[in-house]
Give the backbone structure.
Amino acid sequence: MTFLSTLALAVALLVVAPYVAHRLRRRKAEEQPFPPARLVQPAPPQSRRRSRLEDRALLATRAASVLLLALLGATPFVRCSRLSLQRSGGASVAMAIVVDDSMSMDATADGKTRFARARAGALELLGSAREGDAVAVVLAGAPARVALAATTDLGAARNALDGLTESDRATDLDGAVALARGLVSSLPQVDRRIVVLSDLADGHHDGPPLGEDGSVPVWIALPELRGPAADCALMRADRSGGRVRVGVACGPGVTAAGREVVVEDADGKALGRAAAPSGSTGETTVLLPSEDAAASRARLLGTDAVAGDDVAPVLPEMSRGAIGVVADAADETVATGGAPIVEQALSALKLDVDVRPIPAFPDRTEDLAGDLGVILDDPPGLTPEQRHALGGFLEGGGVVLLALGPHAAAAPLGASLEPLLARGVTWGETKSAGGDPVSAVGPLAEPAHSLVDLGASRRATLAPEDASALESLVKWTDGAPLVARRAMGRGEVWVVTLPFSVDDSDLALRPAFLAVLDAWVHAARERAAPKRSDVGTTWRFPGAHAVEARGPRGPIAVTRDEGVVRVVPPLVGVYRLSVDGKAETRVAAPVLRELDFRPRPAAPTTAGEGMGERRAAVDVSGQVALALLALVAAEIALRAWSRRKVEAV
């Protein structure tokens, strides 16, 4: 505080003056003659009644006037700690505010989360904006999103900031700054800037400095958000019988030593407990009182920076998924012996899936539980029961790879390839030597050159209506589909018009064959319904029509992108979904790198020089002057009322 503001505020000491004046004021009572009083001898007073304050309302008004007069003298010099924009030449400003809503921003400091302080800072910046300024809001939780496109409507910007809520996502600062730059770089304002309100804890403490490059200057405000913090989280809780295996992870240099992991039921009653692992990451096993115990969640006792990641729902122990293979071992085995060639290829790809040979396609959908997809290598048609089971598998999001050969073309009476193909296929000679690399798209665009000469003298031919329903990934040189796919229900069907037998072609010996299997398994994983995934991961529901989702804080938004329903879980916890009337339960788990609170370095140019300041003068002299005038008017009114009251006595 400067000397002038101190001197101005010292005037407030004069507030005692009205009090002293009211105490000293005596109003002499008007004497009225009373003749009989002369007959009574005067007596000296024994005690005097203590004087009392008169006109207390008038005293309060005068004291308030003195205080406001002192404040009026000091207001031009009063400063408060808040963010404010600096302008060059008074021109309008185009500003993109990046607010970090990642999990690390849930850390608490001085009773307030980092996110709450960042949002308050954004509102302070908006308070210093004026008519003609453009404001955009970007959220830095992964993936970075635009909360408000650039607008000159400051009221809309305030509503957007008021509506921001924290999430448990990972951090995407680079993506957020890139989005912010794109929002303001094309605006007509000459003065453009990006303001980042973040703790910079994006898990890349050794990454390149933020804001180092770019045509739009970056100001990283609120450096106090980058304070140190220690956090541990429960990454998973998997149950197998009467045991619950709980995974614990901590940030760099932090351990959960001395803390306990407790497994609780839905009412919060402890069913079992175990010591947390002593390392930065590890696993502990909690024993339940019985295999029938209704374990609901695991909890890490003790306190750390973020409380929301100290609880994990208990799920049945999950397998890594399997690929079912229906192939004739006699026809598909290579000359060197061993498993069918498609099984050997899947093992060679090391896709972290189990390969499960199936003698024949099952008659029940339940028998395919746990399978990501099924490979049908030249099947001799499907029975009605098998077709029904296959339809249910596809509707549930399963993926099928169908290789067509002589057996598929010679299906017995009553067997067909429905629902995969509506019509039968033919097996005959071909004049096409192989695939056309020019027609290859997607995952087969590069390896399609190995399909030029497949050494096939015969191939399968699809009916025109089946061929038109498929999306070709690569075609034969005569334009017929070689590898194609189509969506079916929530699942997907891939069709190859050659069998995988090395006796019929060289397809299984070409690099493109491995590329087909790799892309197909990837598609199967995308369409599968994982019970647990990282928070912020997009859940896709291809083929679904009606999807509803409820998270830890109630219903969450369901969007569509290119006709596919998508749900993004913003918080750690359990999500209840309804997909076309079928109930599903999924869990969003913490992202490991969000436990690292070490801030990313910032470029020296991001200190904010010329773009903003931390301490801004707040001139409220106009408002104080109006209040002072109101008090003067009130004093005049009180004095007039008091005078009339005396005259009336």
The radius of gyration is 38 Å. Confidence is low (pLDDT under 50) at residues 47-51. The longest strand covers residues 232-240.
